[in-house]
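Dear colleague,

Following up on Tuesday's group meeting, I ran the structure prediction for the four-component complex that the binding team flagged. I've pasted the input sequences exactly as they went in, so you can double-check that nothing got truncated or mislabelled along the way. The structure tokens for the whole assembly follow below. Feel free to forward this to whoever is handling the docking comparison.

Inputs:
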Amino acid sequence: MIETAGTKLPTTSYAVLGMLSFGQELSGYDLMKAIESSVGFFWSPAKSQVYAELRRLVAAGYATEREVTQETRPDKRLYVITPAGEEALGAWLTEDDPEPEAFRSTFLMRLFFGHRMSQEQVTRQVRAFRAYNEAMLARFRGIEQQIREQAPQQLHDYPHLTLTYGIAHSEAILDWCDQTLKELGKKKGGKG
Amino acid sequence: MIETAGTKLPTTSYAVLGMLSFGQELSGYDLMKAIESSVGFFWSPAKSQVYAELRRLVAAGYATEREVTQETRPDKRLYVITPAGEEALGAWLTEDDPEPEAFRSTFLMRLFFGHRMSQEQVTRQVRAFRAYNEAMLARFRGIEQQIREQAPQQLHDYPHLTLTYGIAHSEAILDWCDQTLKELGKKKGGKG
DNA sequence: GTCATCATGTAATCTGTTACATGATTTC
DNA sequence: GAAATCATGTAACAGATTACATGATGAC
């Protein structure tokens, strides 16, 4: 309360707050694990950043911290979201004009500067990119299959929508790759 | 040469180097402008970062700097890529296993935490996202149209491939949005 | 004439990453 | 029994953003 309540937090803070919003008491380590296998697909902070945000959340009154002494493992701190934290999360989620998506792609950068590669090298880059996306797609499909088998009710929740996004996205990219590889096959020439 | 030649540079450095690789002598300001309307769609550094990278490139021997005194405008420094710079760029472009794409989306994060919004609010977020992507698509199509009319030979160069990517990508996202909005229409309930 | 934008950048700050630590289990 | 991984984090550093400056020109 005394602290920075009301101030805008960095996005990673909301990722952490969101994870806590499912109601469990978690350590930094727990959170990191949870993030890696879920939101991590579209927001993946370093663990030191997660710890930093936890400190910030506590300072802001959005989470409470409880120290737990352990014998066989290093001591840990467990965190719980507070009502103020839930409110702050809600406000961020429903913001009227959210930050524009900051799309970044080093692959597209390389492609853009293709004039500095031989055509074979460009082709190789596209193939590698294709393979990467194919692997991602397989992964997404695997997860979906698993849900279908083990927790089909989850097919109707919000996290699942992000999965369908990943699938649609990957499929579209693969199509583009195939078409692009065809195009590249047609024309001859380039730097090398 | 004496400096850090051979060291791995941050991605933004390669963005700048790539821009210089088209052969023109450019100022930091020029570069920023050029980036904004091209690679900026998938790699958009802050201008102060561009200036910082230019200093680094010079220190590494990848670019040379020339000061130009102006009367009516602030003085400026112009940069040219060196052969060593071209080589470094080439090495980066053709790297065998490039950094994995770091996909980030705050929209997907919000959606993932949809349980903390009412269903209407989720719907509103998806609609806003749809509108954003529709605007991007229109922009891409506009650019393509302009090329078609004013410089049709560019339809066959590498930058144009990144444009086709943007278009394919946006279209796929719009489809996903429509489908998702339908799904959301079906079920009733949610937080609020 | 006032306000926005051009044409240059620099300084201060903050976000985020990589490297460092460490003892206990599990795996082979 | 050595090597990898689990279970915790912290410290040091680098990358990136936002805020600050400033005089000239163009738009209205």
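The longest helix of chain A spans residues 119-150.

Cheers,
M.
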